[in-house]
């Protein structure tokens, strides 16, 4: 076994981070971070709680769906979903979260780490409404670390390169995969068309 089990051993293998990697970390949102949020339609939220497995959940919406409340606070609407509530349940026990914001076509990302709470404030939820439909709740995050992340992962993966995108037909539909995983009979599986229709009706 060649596992790394101490921070000293880890640093001995990788060395110290560069000065710029440390200095770029901010406590609050600056002009560039706010502009990034205004254009971002997608965020991945990492959370954890004692006795539970860590969770990473995607949230997607219209560009700028994350509301900047002030230089240290943002609000993310919780649109209709599967009601697992993995992130929310974790936040109740451990408010620390990590956020990774993406903009399609841009290789750099915005990382925000901080403390979260779940809000049902009617005034806030109305500000997050789409087409007159307000979210049930919002994740309000107080920033503790804010920084832009370099482009290497996206450059290596060529994530935004359309020539690298797969033909969706080379993978089964979600309905078929769930049938295989759960073992439901054909009459108990929601068809792909029905699933897509439900998505449209419950998007907001």
From TrEMBL:
Protein's organism: Fulvimarina endophytica
Database matches in Gene3D superfamilies: Electron Transport, Fmn-binding Protein, Chain A
Superkingdom of this protein's organism: Bacteria
Protein name (database record): Pyridoxamine 5'-phosphate oxidase family protein
Database matches in Pfam families: PNPOx_N
Coiled-coil positions: none
Domain Pyridoxamine 5'-phosphate oxidase N-terminal stretches: 30-150
């Amino acid at each position: 076994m060649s596992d790394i089990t101490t921070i000293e051993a880890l640093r001995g293998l990788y060395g110290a981070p560069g000065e710029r990697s440390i200095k770029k970390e901010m406590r609050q949102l600056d002009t560039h971070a706010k502009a990034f949020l205004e254009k971002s339609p997608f965020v991945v939220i990492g959370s954890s709680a004692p006795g539970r497995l860590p969770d990473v959940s995607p949230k997607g919406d219209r560009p700028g769906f994350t509301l900047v409340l002030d230089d240290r606070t943002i609000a993310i609407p919780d649109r209709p979903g599967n009601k697992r509530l993995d992130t929310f349940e974790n936040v109740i026990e451990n408010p620390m979260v990590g956020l990774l914001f993406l903009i399609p076509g841009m290789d750099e990302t915005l990382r925000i780490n901080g403390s979260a709470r779940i809000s049902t404030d009617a005034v806030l939820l109305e500000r997050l409404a789409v087409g007159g439909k307000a979210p049930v709740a919002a994740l309000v995050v107080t920033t503790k670390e804010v920084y832009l992340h370099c482009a290497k992962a996206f450059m290596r993966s060529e994530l935004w390169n359309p020539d690298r995108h797969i033909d969706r037909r080379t993978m089964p539909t979600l309905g078929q995969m769930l049938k295989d995983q759960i073992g439901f009979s054909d009459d108990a599986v929601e068809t792909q068309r029905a699933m897509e229709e439900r998505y449209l009706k419950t998007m907001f």
